[in-house]
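Team,

Forwarding the record for the chain on the shared tracking sheet. I've put the sequence and predicted structure together so nobody has to dig through attachments.
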Amino acid sequence: MINDYIRSWLTIANGDLRVAEHEMKVPESDRVTEAICFHCQQAVEKFLKAYLVTRNVELQRTHNLEFLLGQCRNVDPDFGSLDIGDLTFYAVELRYPDEFYAPADEEAEESLIIARRVKQFTMTKLGLSDSDLLSSATSELVVERPLDYFDL
């Protein structure tokens, strides 16, 4: 059983993954690959943070997936088997004109593969399935959260 705060992290992460999956299904000529990569990065970030929250690790306000994965490895060495590629790049740099470029379809596909693997790995580590996320009406989910994380 997971509490609503953790369920919220996982639900939002799953939503980011679903957006990326949906966008990947559109014809290549209409596909927004930077959005796919961004949402994959966001999903991985939130899956890792959800795991850390379950282990009472104080969250840092960061988009750096290597840092978050390192924190997960400190708690559970099995996280060393995860490969997050270059997803951190898509968090910020890709989102602004100075560093903007449209990733190739292959990059978007690889980002999606990575995000799906991280989701499966994290959910397995937490002993959860997708149906566990649906046990609350997400549209009505009101989450009590520590204010210090967002009010740094």
